[in-house]
């Protein structure tokens, strides 16, 4: 089974009817729905999704995401103190010439740790990180 890391954008797009990437997210999701894939994400990504949906789309959208995520089969990685420390190192190392968010750096560290090579994302930072983008 191929491992896929899911970033904030697809979760938001699948749960916000007005999201600019909604059609793209649905198309990619449907395209790979019957493939043998293991999906992974982090608690930091969920934080961004819940907050983004609450601010942009309201309380009901955030609650809808909670139901959506609880029914889905994702490996949820919690950022441990060790992963947090490695994220700080990555943030310092890579942001001398880039603008990767701290959450993107946690994603980088987790993907490297789990040897995940592909991300479902709309963020070009993942290509800069050397990962393949699910399209």
Task: Summarize the topology.
Elements: E1 2-6, H1 8-15, H2 22-32, E2 37-42, H3 43-57, H4 59-71, E3 74-77, H5 81-94, H6 102-114, E4 118-120, H7 125-128, E5 132-133
Parallel strand pairs: 1-2, 1-4, 2-3, 4-5
Helix pairs in contact: 1-2, 1-3, 3-4, 5-6
Domain PIN: 4-131
Protein name: PIN domain-containing protein
InterPro entries: PIN-like_dom_sf, PIN_dom, VapC20-like
Note down, in words, how this protein is organized.
By secondary structure, this protein is α/β, with parallel strands linked by helices. The chain has a single domain (2-133), classed as Rossmann fold (3-Layer(aba) Sandwich), CATH 3.40.50.1010. Helix content is 58%, strand content 15%. The protein contains 7 helices and 5 strands. The chain has a 5-stranded parallel sheet with strand order 3-2-1-4-5. Helix 1 packs parallel to helix 3 (43-57), helix 3 (43-57) packs antiparallel against helix 4 and helix 5 packs across helix 6. The longest helix is centred in the middle third of the chain and has 15 residues, at 43-57. It is globular, with a radius of gyration of 15 Å. The two termini are 17 Å apart. The relative contact order is 0.21.
